[in-house]
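Q: I'm teaching a short session on how sequence maps to structure, and I want students to see two examples side by side rather than one. Could you give me a first protein with its sequence written out and its structure tokens following it? Keep the formatting plain so it prints cleanly on a handout.
A: Of course. Example one:
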Amino acid sequence: MHPYFAKPVPKSLDRNAFAAELVDGLPVEDAAATLTAFTVEAIVKGRAHMPAEPALWVVCGGGRRNRTLMHMLAARVENAVVPAEAVGLDGDTLEAEAWAYLAVRSLDRLAISWPTTTGVAAPASGGVLARASG
């Protein structure tokens, strides 16, 4: 088990926390199945940190289009799992809007991470601004 899952909250990850080597050498179908099962397990483990079981699990982003992921998640949680569109949201723009909101806060040097949510020492802005040359 990755050490992240044993850490108490608050905690966070970045995109480099897990190595692609975990599925190296597997046939593409097995690698996709492994990563899908891992994603579902991570979501299910996160549920333990919630004050109550969500009445409805609303999935946005590309994962909502993965029928296997949606079925696996539905089999592991108590209540319905639906794509964002089922509740009148756009599952693609919702994710993009969230990232845009965080980007604007970062540009304004406002916090996007707090000690109570991710365990940082103090509220922190995030990201690195990379400007095009020329």
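Q: Perfect. Now a second example for contrast.
A: Example two:
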Amino acid sequence: MMKYQSIMHQENLCGKALKMDVMHIVMKTVNFIRAKGLNHRQFQEFLKSMDGDYGDIIYFTEVRWLSRSNMLKRFYNLRNEMKFFIESKSKFVPELDDENWLTDLAFLVDITSHLNELNMRLQSENQLINGMFQTINAFEMKLKLWKTILSISIRSPSTVL
């Protein structure tokens, strides 16, 4: 059986094309917390004191593209805690108060989650090329459906879902 992996690499490149300005703010905020040992320890203690569901924020590196989805999800879930912590350090991230930016962040969280799921399906063992092709076609159909739903919701927000 021959393995075919270039589909995954093409999908990965498409995912990188989705990099929006949102990622810059997210990475800058995460780096502020994670890059300095003191900030990082204080943030972990802060989360512990809040009895949160998470004990830390995930560090993102460009090398591990699949980590983007997990990091974005965690960032989104901890956005209020991070905002409070960063403001306690006299640093402000105005985007964390911006509804439009938060909407873009939520969209990026969702789409990277779906791309991550697609990647995992394409990487599973003993895949035949026709199965991989069907997986990608199904994903393209989902994208078209989401595009249609988004275009409808932009025109008349009260009629969607």
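Q: What should students look for in example two?
A: Point them to this: Helices lie at 6-17, 21-34, 37-49, 67-77, 79-88, 99-123, 129-155. Also worth mentioning: The chain has one domain: 6-159.
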